[in-house]
Specification:
The chain is mainly alpha-helical and about 100 residues long. It is built from 5 helices and no strands. α3 crosses α5.
Length: about 100
């Protein structure tokens, strides 16, 4: 029984030693994803840049549409159609 517990603990520790990136490395990786710059400019007019897995991929177009209405009501700079598509692409693809 003790051996099984030791093996289980050792396996858990070793499996946690994978190639996990630091938060800084993860941020730098996200900054390379197309659409990051546009998302950073537009979204941070009102709030922090959301994490990309906040919503499922298919939900992002409707989220961005909803945010467009908030942007207009609050007299912020709305994204161009090209920026909007880039932002949607960023949120749909960055977490993959």
């Amino acid at each position: 029984m003790k051996v099984a517990i030791v093996v289980l603990c050792a396996t858990t520790l070793v499996s946690g030693c994978g190639e996990r990136m630091s938060p800084r490395e993860e941020q730098q990786k996200l900054m390379q994803v197309p659409g990051y710059r546009e998302a950073k400019i537009i979204c941070t007019q009102c709030h922090k840049l959301p994490i990309t897995d906040l919503h499922v991929s298919a939900a992002w177009p409707s989220v961005i549409t909803r945010m467009d209405s908030y942007i207009k009501v609050n007299n912020r700079r709305a994204p161009t159609e090209q920026e909007r598509e880039a932002i949607i692409g960023y949120f749909q693809n960055a977490g993959k």
